[in-house]
Amino acid sequence: MQIHRRQFLKYCVGSATALGLPMTVLGNLEQALAAGGAVLPKVIWLNGANCTGCTVSLANLFSNSGPTDIADLLFNTIDLVFHPNLMGAAGDLAVQQVKDTAQGSYILAVEGGIPTAFNGHTCMLWTDGGKDVTAMEAVQMLAPNAAAILSVGTCASYGGMPAADPNPTGIVSVSELTGLNTVNIPGCPTHPDWIVWTIAHLLSGVMPQLDDRNRPTDLYGTEIHKVCPRKDQGEAKMFGVEHKCLKELGCKGPKTKSDCPSRKWNNGTNWCIGAGAICVGCTESGFPDKFSPFYKVEYGYQDFQKPNDSQPPIQPPIQPTPQRKYQPHLLLLLGGS
To answer: Is 195 helix (H, G, I), strand (E, B) or coil?
Structure first.
């Protein structure tokens, strides 16, 4: 999967406005594009304990310029040497790819939290010489020599869903496991533009400014509630009311930072609050426990009484089913491609 750097640079330059690249980074990318030459630094992408949602998010990349979709991205844009879901190699060939790449320069991207209980044996990545290699061992082996470490998604950045209480497999973040600084790109899932934006900075030789949680401040520097279009539009008392603020219904926008309101998702189509749902704080450390429960049940309707759980429900008597003559029916299945 040898992909040339020049194609990636052309995409970043062409999509600079959409990605929100600053002029300093854009200038460096244009210089690198004019110089031509070297291939893109190799990327090893490991999947720990996760749902593969960040990979799915990246696979949903759509753009009117540069890579138009995931196929264009992988075959004409970047040099992704190892990814368990996207690479063509398998078995010993894939393991050898990792070992060969580890001898040179590479970027390590990790998706998912890292299990540490039972010596990490709840998450195996591959077998090498008859020995099972855990995610914990793989990260500890590859992280120290990586040119940069990207924690892709909230699970890799802070533990996320797999680390939620009671955390039986002892999930930790990549930085907790290695003791090394990582560039965290949280989100559940993370936005594909955030991944490309971060890699563009690294290619330009500019390490993005990070906040106290090691997130790029340009992407995660603004509290969602402050720039939400529903702000100051009155409080919604129930879901399904357009334009009203969802804060009183449990929206975590006042405690969450990201550029979701301006960037949106699915090529700028919509975002969680825009679709009428609350923000659940997925880009923050401590998610999900810190923000749980996302919803609470209230009984406020006069014509409804909460059932008494201490008493078993009264079962109605079983009525015999009346005999009916068979009548043929025509069932139409209507669908679209």
So the answer is: helix
| C-alpha neighbours within 13 Å on the C-beta side of residue 4 | 8
Q: What is the pLDDT along the chain (337 residues), one digit of tens a residue?
A: 444 455 565 656 556 555 666 655 555 555 555 555 455 678 899 999 999 999 999 888 776 655 566 666 665 556 788 999 888 888 999 999 999 999 998 999 999 999 999 999 999 999 999 999 999 999 999 999 999 999 999 999 999 999 999 999 999 999 999 999 999 999 999 998 898 888 878 877 788 999 999 999 999 999 999 999 999 999 999 899 899 999 999 999 999 999 999 999 988 899 999 999 999 999 999 999 999 888 776 655 555 555 666 666 556 666 665 555 545 444 443 444 3
Which residue in 12, 54, 83, 201 is the catalytic one? 54
Q: Is 12 among the catalytic positions?
A: no
Q: Look up the CATH number of domain 222-305.
A: 4.10.480.10
CA distance 117 to 107: 27
By three-state DSSP, how is residue 223 classified? strand
Of 83, 123, 201, 282, which is the active-site residue?
282
Q: Which of 83, 243, 251, 329 is catalytic?
A: 251
123 belongs to the catalytic site: no
Question: Considering 12, 188, 191, 201, which one is annotated as catalytic?
Answer: 188
Handedness of CA 95, 97, 100, 103 (dihedral sign): negative
Selected from 3.40.50.720, 3.40.50.20, 3.30.1360.120, 3.40.50.700, the CATH number assigned to the domain covering 5-219 reads 3.40.50.700
Write down the catalytic residue from 83, 123, 201, 228.
228
